[in-house]
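Design job #97: recover the sequence.
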C-alpha cells in the first residue's frame, strides 16, 4: 500500500487530480468518499436515493470497483503487473519489498493507449 501511495503521490505532484488515478480498492474508496461522502452501492440506506448505476467508459481495464466509485474517471492506473492493454508513462515504477518471494516487486504507472 505504501508503494501505491508513493506512485499516486508522484502523479499528484504533477497536478493530476486524485479522481484521475485508479489506485486499487483502498485508494479509490478513499477518493470516492472524499469526493462525494459515500460509496455508490445499491444497498446504501443513507444518504437515501444517492445510488446511480454507473458503467465505466469502454476501453478501460476491467475493475469491479469502478462501478462503486463513479467520482473516479481514471486516466492513470497503478498496477503490480504491466497490463498489455495499457501504455507505460514516463514515471518510473515504484519498487517495494515483501516478506514472500519474489521479494522485490514494482508498482507500474500506466494509462490507456491513444486511440488511432
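Job complete. Output follows.
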Amino acid at each position: 500500500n505504501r508503494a501505491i501511495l508513493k506512485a499516486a503521490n508522484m502523479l499528484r505532484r504533477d497536478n493530476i487530480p486524485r479522481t484521475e488515478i485508479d489506485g486499487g480498492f483502498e485508494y479509490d474508496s478513499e477518493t470516492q468518499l472524499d469526493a462525494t461522502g459515500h460509496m455508490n452501492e445499491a444497498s446504501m440506506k443513507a444518504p437515501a436515493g444517492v445510488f446511480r448505476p454507473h458503467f465505466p467508459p469502454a476501453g478501460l481495464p476491467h475493475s469491479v470497483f469502478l462501478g462503486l466509485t463513479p467520482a473516479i474517471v481514471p486516466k492513470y492506473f497503478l498496477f503490480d503487473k504491466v497490463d498489455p492493454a495499457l501504455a507505460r508513462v514516463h514515471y518510473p515504477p515504484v519498487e517495494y519489498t515483501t516478506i514472500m518471494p519474489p521479494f522485490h516487486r514494482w508498482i507500474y504507472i500506466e494509462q490507456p493507449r491513444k486511440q488511432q
